[in-house]
Amino acid sequence: DTGVSQNPRHKITKRGQNVTFRCDPISEHNRLYWYRQTLGQGPEFLTYFQNEAQLEKSRLLSDRFSAERPKGSFSTLEIQRTEQGDSAMYLCASSLARRLTRETQYFGPGTRLLVL
Amino acid sequence: GQQLNQSPQSMFIQEGEDVSMNCTSSSIFNTWLWYKQDPGEGPVLLIALYKAGELTSNGRLTAQFGITRKDSFLNISASIPSDVGIYFCAGQPQGAQKLVFGQGTRLTINP
Lengths: 116, 111
Hints:
A: 116 residues; four-stranded antiparallel β-sheet; 0% helix; globular; B: 111 residues
């Protein structure tokens, strides 16, 4: 069990550029979550997948944001036409959801985005 | 939407002291979780609570799931320097899979 991994760990970009982040969940975890965390705040939910299906999206996820999990394993989060307000830590979490078992979300180290 | 009120926002204590922090909500939660986050890192799970009234320990940490399902507390006994960090409570609302987080409690320890 190598834990949730995220790449890159840091990203600096200019306003208007597109960025893409990757998350590799814990092996065999069927649910994958994306959260955003701004300085001094707790993480806020963006979206989640069960296997390859995207089941819920937050109102925080504007149309410039898109997430995919094409094969039900790793996921990517893309932000198009970045704005300075997109600067934040983007966290990925994964969990194993099964009937009659308790689900617990485990977080990766995050990708810190700075938009200049 | 659901909100969690976490208090205190910050604590400054001496090494060896006990610490207590709590979270309250106006909504019912099915699960309460406590995470610790170090600067530049993701939250690390400390304790998970799944039943109202449940009291769980993990070493020097003890947490309880409130009977009303609207609150939880975390206690740390005999604090040590590595306890420094930000502690977050998180709840899983009824019928939802996402977690809702509190604002965090920043713990600072004077040696």
